[in-house]
Amino acid sequence: MKVVKLGIENFRGIRRASLCFDGHTLLVGTNNVGKSTICEALDLVLGPDRLNRFPPIDEHDFYNGIYLFPSLEEGLPPTPIRLRIEAVLVGLSVEVSNRCGGNSEFWHLLEKRVLAAGEIAAANPPDVVPCLRIETIGLYDIEEDEFVARTYFSHSPDAPLGELTAVPKTIKRQFGFLYLRTLRTGSRALSLERGSLLDIILRAKGVRHSLWQKTISRLQSLDIESDATEIAPVLRSVEKRLSRYVALESPGNATKLHVSELTREHLRKTLTFFMALSADQAHVPFAHAGTGTINTLVLALLSLIADLKSDVIFAMEEPEIAVPPHTQRRIAEYLLTKTTQAFVTSHSPFVIEKFEPSQTLLLARQDAGTVTSRKVSDATGLKDNDYRRFAKSGLSECMLSRGVIVVEGVTELHAMPVIARRMEEQDPSLQPLDISGVAFFDADGESNVPKFGKFFKTLGLRTFAFYDLLPKGNRKPEVLQALADTYEINTEHPYKGFEGLLAAEVPASRLWSFLLDLKISDESGNVMVPELQPSDAAVRSLAMQALGSNKGAGWAARLLNDCEYEELPGATKDFLAGIYKLFPRPVEAEEESQPDDAWLDDPI
Fold it and tell me: Which of 197, 467, 552, 575 sees the fewest Cβ atoms within 10 Å?
């Protein structure tokens, strides 16, 4: 089974969202855009155990924490505000189809919608397939003074008018949904609490009643007093004193120590998995292992669960946390090949590169809590090969930013952030670009600048370009128009190469100091730096030769680091100054003028 659509109303930080999915899905976006909330929503509507909690939801599960609408008439009670999450499932298993046939509907794969009641004649394969709509509704019960939530079939033809049929937990278990919160799942993955990975494995294998009953019987048979003889006299004294007030008619000793109250729930919370991490170590609780080891254990359990279940839908938050790159790739590869459907949130290029552009949803938050999504593949103009090639070299970081500065090559990529840092140091009123969410991107050539600008702009990002004068002739009119349409700030500096810009605009004295430093450190290579300083024109020519011969060595950034602020090239400072104006520093709230103890003088 797979989720093809998810609707969210008034849940946590999302007031409204309508999201469509095509199989495996990578959710990317800025912090607090709603990635984790979407995973939590899937858990609430699909997870079999989430609603077992008491209460299943609370105040903070409602948008802005508002769960009551004040009455417009005095004396009348407020009206509960509901949260609602609806999922549409296709690829129904035989068992689900048999048990829920009366509640099924039809989903149009191309139009991405459920057919209405009068469209039954249009329910023809392969464009239309059976589907199941289920929804979880949560609200505050004023009379009972508690929060309630329950899952229903959205299409309930057999229910009384105005009501919906509840979805049994046994049906939810058939969906095979698992939600893995990386930071939180690891701490309880191998406990026996309800919903833990080990609990899921035991349930899948049918290990239930015998486990608990045998464990309880063994604990009951433990004779604690025989192992701690000094306790027995104390217990007998307590028993003797109790007999003065309470009739103790049991033969033998009327008091006894037990390990616990011996309930299944106590055992679930106390039993845990121990492991020996090395040859010289005794077995310790698995939670004492390193975070990376715990996350790798989670991966091992996932693979076991997938082997036990025919249908598995995973939602997994940031699998890259505390895991090395090769393990990140293995986790992503496993999710994509061994599960029916996976929902993943990630900021890691090693995870992002494993998902196709058509599988990657970029989330955005609009006004009033509305969350929207867009496939990266819809950002036309970028081929899949380009996407995969650049994913690890800055593309994924830029996709998560607010603005992107596109430059032609690696020299600019190293040099421009240095100039930005120097400008921020010079003028504390500037908001640092990284805090503003502005990233630099190396387009790897002049010809790539238009297409990457189009890619980023289509994703809804602010775009800025800084590129060289064309070596031979002018750019074609269509290219000039594409650059103008794509970039908010579109700067062609008047030099043939960034090295030419530095050689022309950095003072000759600074360039000569840079060249001497290369000569003294024996790094100048084929650049013949003379003993005595030549003319300014010769110095600039040598500097351009040196910078051009070692583009990947970071020499441009090294030169700029040594410059005084006034010596930095004006063309780059002017370009960056325009971007800083678009991302001003937030206005800080004014501090209260009264002293901290002024409240002491206020009347009570």
Answer: 552
